[in-house]
Amino acid sequence: MSEFKPLPDLPPPPNTVGAIGWLRTNLFSNWLNTILTLIAIYYIGQAIFWFVDWGIINASFSGSTKDDCPLNAEGEKLGACWVFINARFDQFIYGFYPDSEIWRINLMLGIFTLCIAGLVIEGTPKKNWLAVFTLFIFPIIAFYLLHGGRFGLDTVDTHKWGGFTLTLVLAVVGIVASLPIGILLALGRRSEMPIIRSISIVYIEFWRGVPLITVLFMASVMLPLFMTAGTETDKLARALIGIIMFQSAYMAEVVRGGLQAIPKGQYEAAQALGLSYWKMMGLIVLPQALKLMIPGIVNTFIALFKDTSLVLIIGLFDLLAIMQSAITDPNWPRVSVEGYLFVAFMFWAFCFGMSRYSQALERKLNTSYR
Questions:
Q1: For a Cys staple, 95 with which of 107, 160, 163, 343, CB 3.0–4.6 Å?
Q2: 138 domain residue, yes or no
Q3: Is the domain of 64 the same as that of 164?
Q4: What's the DSSP call for residue 55?
Q5: Nearest Cα residue to 314 out of 247, 245, 237
Q6: Cross-strand bridge partners of residue 81
Q7: Same domain for 57 and 192?
Q8: Are 173 and 30 part of one and the same domain?
């Protein structure tokens, strides 16, 4: 009797693997999905065709005045007038900062970019020291570069700060300051000491119960009423205080959710080792909880980054406020679409970058077994 030899495995059908297989599985799996896919392709194609025709083919890119954007016979623009963005770009980025001192903002942004890149890139030497520099030393350097008044730098008052620079200042300071405060509030809310727990609960529930626009009004108008006569507080500082207090309450709830996800056995094991409360939290609980909280933390950061545009109501001109004032200039008629698209792209780019980095961080710190 001849020995039985199994036949080799046949390859899968070509229409079930690769791009064709993905399309069949996700977009054309049945007649309803096929119809919805075709409708979506039609409308997406129309939008792409309009934008390419309006924003690229018939658009104007070079020049410095509205006359560089050609009009048709009816007096309407043939395409997008990106000349407007080019002509006002410095104002959108630097606000009303003196032209002769813009190098200070560029230097500050350059140092900040290098610090972030060093922290993100794998294999950066002395990363712990770089983190200490970024958190504690760089803010002092950035303040004196932006504000001046020391080391031979001219003073530039905060009412001249604006544009995307102000947006970054509000977002970065709010993000960096709200995280540690939120962690302390979350620990306080879970504390076994009634006074600490009650204070934390009242703080969190109060600030989560009012909208940010109300907080900014209160910080700008009411905060000076509680200060001694003759004391003046900078408007930007008041806005930052309001944003930090508001955002730390939301951050506290994100952190509390992460702490609740840690099994009770981790607490008991740390106590069995004789660790103090702060060592247990700093060495055992928080490192595990913060890993679980990455999506919630980044989501809160993204929301804060977009909410910085609300400072317009208290007279601070961030990127959106600068854009809204620019499109009302009679020298640049009918450029609102270009302006808002530029603002949307700037916000989207930074928010998308934070989202992608958080996903990469999640994959790097993922220790679960699937």
A1: 163
A2: no
A3: no
A4: I
A5: 237
A6: 60
A7: no
A8: no
Of 34, 61, 83, which residue is a domain's last?
83
Q: Are residues 77 and 160 both part of a single domain?
A: no
Residue owning tokens 């309407």: 76
Phi, psi of 71, deg, nearest 5: -115, 155
What residues make up the domain containing 162? Answer: 92-97+156-365
The helix or strand, by DSSP H or E, that contains position 5, with its residue range, turns out to be none
Same domain (yes/no): 233, 335: yes
Same domain for 210 and 326?
Answer: yes
Contact between residue 322 and residue 163 where contact means Cβ atoms under 8 Å apart: yes
Amino acid at 171: A
Cβ atoms 186, 255 nearer than 8 A: yes
Nearest to 27 by CA among 41, 17, 14: 41
Examine the domain organization and report whether 190 and 62 are in the same domain.
no
First to last CA, the chain: 46
294 phi, psi to nearest 5 deg: -55, -50
Tokens of 125: 């030497």
Using an 8 Å Cβ cutoff, are 176 and 243 in contact? no
Q: Are residues 63 and 188 in the same domain?
A: no
pTM: 0.83
Please give the Cα distance from 8 to 146 (Å, whole number).
Answer: 70
In contact, 301 and 153? CB cutoff 8 Å? no
- Each residue of 33-91: pLDDT tens digit? 889 999 999 999 999 998 898 888 888 888 788 777 777 666 677 788 888 888 888 88
DSSP assignment of 283-310:
IIIHHHHHHHTHHHHHHHHHHHHHHGGG
Instruction: Give the count of domains, the chain.
Output: 2
